[in-house]
Amino acid sequence: MFKFCAVVDEGSLSRASKRLFMSQPAISAHIKSLEEQLGLTLFHRVGRRSVVGKAGEVLYQMAGELFALADDLKTVTGDLRGTQFGRIHVGISLEWEHLLPRALGRYKAAYPAVEGLLTVHEGDEVEKMTLGRMIDVGFISRASTRPELESQPILVDEIVPIVNQDHPLANAIDLTPKDLSREMIFVRESGSTGRETTDKMLQGCGLSDQIAMEAASHEAIRALVLAGAGVGFVPRSCLGPNGSAVPVSIIDLPGLCAPLNRT
Fold first, then answer.
1. 224 and 205 inside one domain
2. Cβ distance 240 to 98 under 8 Å?
3. What is the SS3 assignment for 92?
4. Are the C-beta atoms of residues 249 and 232 closer than 8 Å to each other?
5. Domain of 210?
């Protein structure tokens, strides 16, 4: 059942195979066997994607409930033995990947008998997995808009402009937005968490037209900045403690930093 749910979560056999460290033929054979046992078609092929059908959606939801019950059973039996025992599956959006793994490492050290699983997805997918009970808790970088979910801000991050340490703006003082008017600006792709906040900042400073590239990750933005290509906008947290883990400089420019709530 884990293999079936992985294909639903990932949307394709290839991505599910990477997640499960299995070959695509092996997963495909498992899905075929499951469909034969149930007498149902669980997926429809749309191009290279495996789109879950109505029967698959029902099974996916029920599987989440079964996994939750299994985890509860492990916890109860562990309590009866006087040990902390069970499994915790955490889903995070990309913005959390520089923060949460360290905390999970400390949790694992404190509770070695608890099995931990970490899944990284876009925020919308994390919400979907939480609703489907495929994960125990999700961490995203905005308040959830789904009424079925309860979200609570637990950390305030900040979107900041960065440049290569050798860039002329790196050590400049008394900067104004006009100083960026000839710079190429790199931001996350449309629809990603934090992009709306970045767009509002740039629009307020008259710099929207300077967006030269949309990147699928903060790592890609940092790579462009390290190459000296221009100015990137990323969460402060992805630069490490005190912004010192990556050899870039944060520009001190009023109006071009904005808070980013993480929930």
1. yes
2. yes
3. strand
4. no
5. 155-262
Task: Summarize pLDDT for 139-197 with one digit per residue, the tens.
Answer: 887 778 888 888 888 777 888 999 999 999 998 888 888 999 999 999 998 877 678 88
**Rg (alpha carbons) of the chain, rounded to whole number:** 22
Q: Is the pTM of this model over 0.90?
A: no
For the segment 103-149, what is each residue's pLDDT rounded down to a tens digit?
Answer: 788 877 877 777 888 888 888 888 888 888 888 888 887 778 888 88
Residue 191 sits in the same domain as residue 146: no
198 and 258: one domain?
Answer: yes
- Gap between the Cα atoms of 237 and 164, Å rounded: 17
Task: Give 94: exposed, middle or buried? Use CB within 10 Å, 0-12, 13-18, 19+.
Answer: buried
Distance CA 198, CA 210 (A): 12
Long-range contacts of 147-152 (CB under 8 A, 24+ apart): 151/263, 152/263
173 closest CA partner among 227, 244, 249 = 249
Q: Quick check: 92 and 119 in contact, CB under 8 A? A: yes
Shared-domain flag, residues 238 and 169: yes
CA–CA separation, 215 vs 218, rounded Å?
A: 7
On whether both 145 and 199 belong to a single domain, the answer is no
DSSP letter assigned to residue 236? G
